[in-house]
Amino acid sequence: MEWIVQSDTSLWLMTGAIALVVMWFVKGLMSRPKNLPPGPVGLPFLGVAWEMMRAKPDPLALYSSWADQYGDVVSFKVGPMTFVLLNSYEVIVEAFSHPDLNNRPKSQMVEEALGLANNGVILANGKVWEEQRKFAHSVFRSLGVGKKSYEDTVATEMDQLRAAIEEKEGSSFDPNLLFGQAVANIVCSVAFGTQYKYSDVEFRQILNLMNDNMELSSGGGALLFLPLPGISKIPFGAPKKMVKNMKEVNKFLLNQIESHEKCLDLDHPRDFIDLYLKKMAETKVLETSSYSKINLNSAIGDLLFAGTETTTTTLKWCILYMMAHPEMQSRVQRELDHVVGRERLPRLDDRNDLPYTNAVLIEVQRKGAVAALGVPHVAAEDTSFRGHTIPKGATILSNIWKVLNSEELWKDSDAFKPDRFLTEDGKLIKREELIFFSVGRRVCLGEQLARMETFLGFTSLLHRFTFKKPDNSPPLSFEGVLGITRNTMPYLTCALSRD
Ligand code: HEM
């Protein structure tokens, strides 16, 4: 008798459990917004969270397999969040020219840690973004950033970099910190008129903190954009470290603003901060204006953050590929010697006369795919797109990596082949699909500066040095490390002087 009662209870419990799982499953499926683009369904409630965890630290291969399976526009869910992944040049251009697909998701972490929400450029939306972006552009124009008139500032920095590399006297070094210092210094000169000595302890510390955060933020900056209230209070792991680093970097930025305020001369603004403070003074009366100290704080943080890691990493991929392809390195050097000579360093004016050098730089940027997943966008409204609906609030990722590795666009795309960008008579081929800086209304604000820095950085380094893999060092690896950018694995190099 007891046995019958027990088996009855077990049956009821089992039936109840199955019913719950079915309800959970059905509810999970029903919470999938209607008419989404195709994509992997994953588990109820969790979506593809499990697959994403397994794909860590590099989700690019997983995304690529979804692109192959579901097409150019793929959707998936991670918990309650809906993502749309854009996998071809055409869909990225089309989506990013749509006014409702150009907002940014909010960063819960930045908002909680620094009190910066709809501020600055990168994370701002609507009128604030429009005004701040336009102003930043106008400051770049008036300071000549990315133009010939700014070339001397960049060249001075490259001199400092060269001298620091010469001090190594051919012994092996990790280029990360030195390249980072050179590139950050150029942004610092734009933002607060300072070019630091590489021995400056505070400057080194700030760079290390920013570096850490780039890595800690995980594939495509996932942690930065995780909508988890209280994330800044998590007392352990990556979130705790990121918040601490962010606060320290921000203290450094606030100090810069404060010292500029103390010696501001409105008739002689020197840099981004001065010009911003001037603008604030002029627009004080306009209640509707977004020129405020909090937006200034955010904007200079954006420049430093967006302008340092990206360009540093590009230069690191350059040296890595040159070590791996010494014959190509020699060919670039021969072209430089022929066009520029040995008496001076390369200048922007030489750019059009250096097709092979440019082709190598482009191929490095294609293979390096530094901004592999761009910077996330978010849909401002339910939006019809290619026969599907991208729901309001969906996070949109541009799979720039996929475009740059597309076999259709770049035959034998796995191979490193700069010659693919040269005509038979040696002229440079320009291809619009090379969207290193994204496209559309949010296209990289620092594109001109970055192009100038990578060209002058790469050419002046190869003009002065030959880079070699140190004897007995581990084999070169071309695996990327995906944080906000797609970084190289750490490596050592030897720079042998050519003079
Ligand atoms: C090789 C170097 C660089 C690469 C590959 C790169 C790439 C990108 C990409 C892919 C985006 C996202 C665009 C989008 O949302 O669709 C972006 C945004 C941005 N970049 Fe860059 N970038 C580089 C250097 C720089 C530099 C040097 C600066 C400034 C000093 C800069 C400032 C910005 C800013 C402010 C944004 C946000 C634009 C907005 O939200 O309106 N970037 N960049």
UniProtKB/TrEMBL annotation:
Record-annotated membrane-spanning stretches: 12-30
Cofactor(s) required for function per UniProt: heme
SUPFAM superfamilies named in the record: Cytochrome P450
Entry binding sites for heme: 444
Keyword Cell inner membrane included in the entry's annotation: no
UniProt entry keywords in alphabetical sequence: Heme, Iron, Membrane, Metal-binding, Monooxygenase, Oxidoreductase, Transmembrane, Transmembrane helix
Presence of keyword Iron: yes
Pfam families, alphabetized: p450 (PF00067)
Single GO MF descriptor: heme binding
Similarity annotation: Belongs to the cytochrome P450 family.
Protein name: Cytochrome P450
Organism: Strongylocentrotus purpuratus (Purple sea urchin)
